[in-house]
């Protein structure tokens, strides 16, 4: 029997069911999900999962895609079409499909996907009778910001916070008050002593390719570098603040949380590094 998936209003063969390549679930992990177990074709703990779903969606400010009654109908219809007596039903809701941009899209309906599958309850019973093995590993959720993963939900929320405050970028701050990096950029300052500062990459940040290029260019320009973290206060007192990324090159940041950086104008170091970076990038592009 072929499986069926519900995708954005239609029931489709599971084998060919697709969401758009610009779905934010795929691009940013910008979505939530729920799983119900199914006994005799019926949903277990329906309300409990619906309550958590509503909370997850509300926390992420993803619009509730349909009423609880409509969703119940879709879940049950998916279970029915898959002839699941005992098994599981999955629901994924993402912030929908929109041209790639970290910040939330406007007027984009959420994507809704429902799948269901049969589970052999006897297997679980046999294992439960014997008992199951466990292992341990450090809880790293999500302590691997050095990996350029599509799991970008925290970055999405940071960029959205910037947008809502009329800002270009959000600098993210660790529990010690030190800037880690921007939501989609590496962060730099020219500190009060005139030293170029950026956090070292032993730390939990993305090793920006632009960052590496800028480090070399700064050296060639004879700019003194101090590769260590800086606090928000240090950034606010800095001569210059700027961010770097393949998409924005070197972008001077002239205010932070509403406070002017120095005289509120792009500084000479950022301006020079932008110029030499662009010149080199153009020249060396293959
Ligand atoms: N940090 C984060 C979190 C990013 O997403 C990016 C760019 N996508 C960067 C830093 C900058 O990296 P790169 O210079 O390689 O673009």
UniProtKB/TrEMBL annotation:
It holds the Pfam family Aminotran_4. CDD domains: D-AAT_like. Its EC number is 2.6.1.42. One of its GO terms (biological process) is branched-chain amino acid biosynthetic process. The keyword Calcium does not apply. Pathway: Amino-acid biosynthesis; L-valine biosynthesis; L-valine from pyruvate: step 4/4; Amino-acid biosynthesis; L-leucine biosynthesis; L-leucine from 3-methyl-2-oxobutanoate: step 4/4; Amino-acid biosynthesis; L-isoleucine biosynthesis; L-isoleucine from 2-oxobutanoate: step 4/4. One of its GO terms (cellular component) is cytosol. It is an enzyme of class 2 (transferase). Its cofactor is pyridoxal 5'-phosphate. One of its GO terms (molecular function) is branched-chain-amino-acid transaminase activity. It catalyses: L-leucine + 2-oxoglutarate = 4-methyl-2-oxopentanoate + L-glutamate; L-valine + 2-oxoglutarate = 3-methyl-2-oxobutanoate + L-glutamate; L-isoleucine + 2-oxoglutarate = (S)-3-methyl-2-oxopentanoate + L-glutamate. Belongs to the class-IV pyridoxal-phosphate-dependent aminotransferase family. Acts on leucine, isoleucine and valine. This is Probable branched-chain-amino-acid aminotransferase. It comes from Brevundimonas bullata. The lineage of its organism: Bacteria, Pseudomonadati, Pseudomonadota, Alphaproteobacteria, Caulobacterales.
């Amino acid at each position: 029997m072929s499986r069926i998936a519900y995708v954005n209003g239609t029931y489709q063969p599971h084998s060919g069911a697709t969401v758009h390549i610009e779905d934010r679930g795929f691009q940013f992990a910008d979505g939530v999900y729920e799983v119900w177990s199914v006994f005799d074709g019926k949903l277990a703990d329906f309300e409990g999962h619906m309550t958590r779903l509503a909370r997850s969606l509300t926390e992420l400010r993803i619009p509730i895609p349909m009423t609880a009654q409509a969703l119940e109908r879709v879940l049950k219809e998916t279970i029915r079409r898959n002839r699941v007596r005992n098994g599981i039903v999955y629901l994924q809701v993402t912030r929908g499909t929109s041209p790639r941009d970290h910040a939330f899209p406007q007027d984009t309906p959420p994507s809704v996907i429902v799948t269901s599958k049969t589970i052999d309850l006897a297997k679980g019973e046999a294992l439960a009778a014997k008992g199951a093995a466990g292992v341990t590993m450090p809880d790293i959720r999500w302590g691997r910001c050095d990996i350029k993963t599509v799991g970008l939900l925290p970055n999405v929320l940071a960029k959205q916070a910037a947008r809502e405050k009329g800002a270009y970028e959000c600098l993210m701050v660790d529990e010690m008050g030190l800037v880690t990096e921007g939501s989609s950029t590496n962060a730099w300052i020219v500190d009060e002593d005139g030293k170029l500062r950026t956090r070292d990459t032993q730390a939990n940040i993305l090793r920006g390719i632009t960052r590496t290029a800028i480090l070399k260019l700064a050296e060639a320009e004879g700019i003194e570098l101090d590769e260590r973290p800086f606090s928000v206060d240090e950034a606010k007192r800095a001569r210059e603040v700027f961010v770097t990324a393949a998409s924005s090159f070197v972008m001077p940041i002239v205010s932070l949380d509403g406070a002017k950086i120095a005289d509120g104008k792009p500084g000479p170091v950022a301006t020079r590094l932008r110029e030499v970076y662009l010149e080199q990038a153009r020249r060396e592009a293959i």
